[in-house]
Amino acid sequence: MTAKNITAAVLVIGDEILSGRTKDKNIGYIAEYLTNIGIDLKEVRVVPDDEDEIVPALNALRKRYSYVFTTGGIGPTHDDITADCVAKAFGVELYEDPRIIAMMLERLKPEDLNEMRRRMARIPVGAEHVKNTISKVPGFRIENVIVMAGVPAIMQAMLDDVAPKLTTGARMLSRTIDAMGIPEGTYAADLGQIAKEHPSVIIGSYPQFGEGRFHNQIVVRSKEASTMDAAVSAVEAMLRDLAAKKG
Amino acid sequence: MTAKNITAAVLVIGDEILSGRTKDKNIGYIAEYLTNIGIDLKEVRVVPDDEDEIVPALNALRKRYSYVFTTGGIGPTHDDITADCVAKAFGVELYEDPRIIAMMLERLKPEDLNEMRRRMARIPVGAEHVKNTISKVPGFRIENVIVMAGVPAIMQAMLDDVAPKLTTGARMLSRTIDAMGIPEGTYAADLGQIAKEHPSVIIGSYPQFGEGRFHNQIVVRSKEASTMDAAVSAVEAMLRDLAAKKG
Description:
Two copies of one chain form a homodimer.
Chain A: E1 7-13, H1 15-18, H2 26-37, E2 40-47, H3 51-64, E3 67-71, H4 82-90, E4 94-96, H5 98-105, H6 115-119, E5 122-124, E6 128-132, E7 136-142, E8 145-148, H7 152-162, E9 173-178, H8 184-197, E10 202-210, E11 213-222, H9 225-246
Parallel strand pairs in A: 1-2, 1-3, 3-8
Antiparallel strand pairs in A: 4-5, 6-7, 7-8, 9-11, 10-11
Helix pairs in contact in A: 3-4, 8-9
């Protein structure tokens, strides 16, 4: 029996990523995390702090994938508009959640709970909290959309909270094979043939460049150990043959 | 006179980024580079090595922005399908460019120029080369789409080659102001007011989290030095006032 594929997209919200001022650290982290729990990340988009960009992107992604993870834009300042945009995308209202106000009052004096801080207590009708063990104020989840902070430490804590509640599929297994110094162009034909003969396996070739030359790795991925192992054996045999010819 | 805004999108092509195996280093680099030369990066998408994903994404982005920069998928192996997808998106044919074959023969023996390596010499009809000073085989540009390698060192060389040929707009100027330890929630209302009073300026507040607390920075961006300076002065005066109240 093959488990249903569970898919996801990440929507990164933030002018600071697009201007290059802040280098994103969340995409790679979420990608690896989801792969490890059996959710296939299929798309990432980065959009500015602009309602006209966020709402259509969110609507496109949430209809297409099992889950959408957003990062950024949930702080107290005027440029934090993610909650408003998510509510708009779902056609629901935001409300001030008294449970979040209570959490904020654990760390703030009542006179410091100003109007802008109260903005962080607003969540869409129908949303549930995503716990923030770092700075208390939670993210939220509404249907298949999970709204998280942009600050990496907080985003990571939120992902740990929400992950056990998600439906996951079969985990993608992966094996990396060093290409033994053989150039990509030398093994490309044989590798393409192996990919054709193992259609349920995903085979990629990834060059890295360093010290003036390429170092290639071949990655074999599958949701089934037996099919992956068969393809790995074929790749290893191919590399041995090519190395012998060369030598 | 205000220069026309020149916009761009980045399309990252690669299963390895979505699986988390490879951590992208190109998005942040391109973002900063384009900002510095007066091109506004407005959107980034990451898609898998799948024609049905690449072609529609490329068509959506190239119609919407002045330029689209793609990274990845231009090597010799079966999973490198970017050139095919770009040709399909533009409805043109790929052809084997004898100038690229000649470049390859500078580094390869004729008997090593196999069918898969020849794939790298294919460019769409109407495309021009984007020079690769690292490993010779060029990227290409067709209309407003610039197709680059995924390997960072090669991508960076290609960007250096193509950048002087692009139309650029007014450079976005930027000033970062340290929030002097004042919490975001304390300055959020005043900062929002300043943003309202300086509508041509983009003001963002960016928390970082480290050693158990937040360190906030306020970033003021504008294409005009005078309007930026006015907003920066207002932000600095606000922070001084708040710091005085606190002290």
